[in-house]
Amino acid sequence: MNIKESITKLSGVGAKRAENLATLGIETIEQLLGYYPFRYEDIQERKLAEIQDQEKVTIKGLVVSPAVLSRFGYKKSRLQFRMMQEHDVFAVSFFNQPYLKDKVEVSTEIAVYGKWDAKRKSLTGMKILAPKQEEDFAPIYSVNKAVRQATLIQLIKQGFEHYYDAIEENLPLSLIEKYRLLSRQEAMYAMHFPKDATEHHQAKRRVVFEEFFLFQMQLQQLKQKEKSESNGMAISYDVDALKAFTQQLPFELTGAQKRVTNEICRDLLSPNHMQRLLQGDVGSGKTVVAAIGLYATKTAGFQGALMVPTEILAQQHMESLQQLYEGFDIKVALLTGSTKVKERREILSQLASGEIDVLVGTHALIQEDVNFARLGFVITDEQHRFGVNQRKVLREKGLKPDVLFMTATPIPRTLAITAYGEMDVSIIDELPAGRIPVITRWVKPPQLEKVLEASLEELGKGHQMYVICPLIEESEMLDVQNAVTIFEELQDFYGDRYQVSLLHGKMKNQEKDAIMETFKNNESQILVSTTVIEVGVNVPNATMMIIIDADRFGLAQLHQLRGRVGRGAAASTCILVANPKNDTGKKRMQIMTETTNGFIVSEKDLELRGPGEVFGNRQSGLPEFATADLVADGHILEVAKIEAESILQQKGWEILPDYQPLVNYLGEQKEGQYFD
Ligand code: ADP
Ligand code: MG
Questions:
Q1: Whose CB has fewer CB within 10 Å in the chain, the N or C terminal residue?
Q2: What spacing in Å lies between the alpha carbon of 464 and ligand 1's midpoint?
Q3: Which of 380, 409, 428 delimits the end of a domain?
């Protein structure tokens, strides 16, 4: 007996039924037994008197009159009978399910799920639940037209009858004991047919742990492999030269910056392959950390690359690096989509000869004809915008360079250790001293007028302001129109008191740059923009931001946008103009006004919208768990991760007896199950 056998081994499963079951993803006994209900019908007896009018309930009772079927019209029918609970008799009717007639036998007990009408003492039935079933917890499966609930239940029962003993444990006994988990057999059975709520809870706890733990075992093994020496290179930088560089910086690094810089430098030195995620809130100072890493790389005789998602950001990084490197012997070049052909050719040849030390650019940087002499270190900023493939191509260009992914969108820890579990994580959790947190307010659209009045005071102090209009992906044209309208209204409002300019996604790069330049130089005081400024723009004199229709943005995006203000010494405000229609929308606006901590924002966003939404489903690399829930079961994930790591740290763990079930199980799994 092997639970990997085909379900056709069960009686009653022929080719046709097997095909139908396959539409639910059930082909083996193991898949059948692991096809858990998505909920349970709690058919604990409910006293009729306690049921609310129009409540959907399951009522158990004795059938006391034969079922009468009346047909009317084409395909329409009504099935009526009476049931009794204790001494109360009530009417039950089913519409358009004539086939249920056979299930209703006088003097038998059945349970009917339906909507209760308290006044008429009648139940409009939706279904009859597993007749003659003893359990109070009836499983409800997600099924389709081809497979019915009853069929599934019958097959699962049959499966357990014949294959219960063939279910092998896959967790080490030590963990089962440590966390008082049910055995795999017990848990699988109880997931379908729990005796009560407590047993169901225990079963689920075991299944969730198992899912997370097995996933982490694979992930951590992958991490070990990726990091292994055969994959990487040692970048032996010049410690003294690096010290000389860091000591002349115009500011003292924060404690967090020092810590992550050390983590990065340690990775560079080591022959292991660096795969590190650097998370740091907007304005936490990641650029200088990148600059230090790139400088270190140069002193070791390697080249570095800094990739960013937009041209504006590339230019800005280029300027920042040039400033930071002033007086130091390091050659930085900028390569983007709009680099002129001749200049481009020049840069390419200097890259190939090793003359250029650091290349900054958009993903134009990974085009085929870009070749480095000795690429040692690659940094991508705002990495969530980079596709996995782009990163891969880049990595393959050089000599397996160390890679640092920087992101200002804090990823909730549970997601980070799942989606980026194969990476090490560094966190800058401290802002440079002297920053004043941005004050955020939420107002309804009619109050915009007042907000604009208030802006006069801020502008009067010589400060500048952003006005952000949302971007609806389906219609860029409409967004532009929308932005243009707002731009014109603001021009009317401010008249010749202040200069308003407009930036949107349909503009040519040169045009955008020119407008950014005017804003930077304070030649215009108000910048109306679609989200093109989302990432990275640095104009410390801008102290106010108005975000129109703020509820159309994700929280992470709002947080990013808000990060454009509060970058100087003066206090800043961010006004969210929104009229959200539902509670979630309102809560989201509320959260923004309550915290400026990006990690809290992202945790809350995760709670409200779920991992898929927060993370942008598909390309995220986030695995889908069958039973486990990244939000609700986060604490179990933490434990599973720690246990997986501690097993892998034991030398020769594969041959220890306690881990044999695990080794066998992992070995049987298709390779790359989670990671292809
Ligand atoms: P981000 O993490 O959002 O990329 P930046 O690297 O752009 O942040 O830094 C934001 C601003 O803070 C820059 O103007 C930078 O010069 C400044 N900065 C960075 N580190 C420090 C520090 N330790 N002390 C003071 N200012 C700093
Ligand atoms: Mg940055």
A1: C
A2: 20
A3: 428
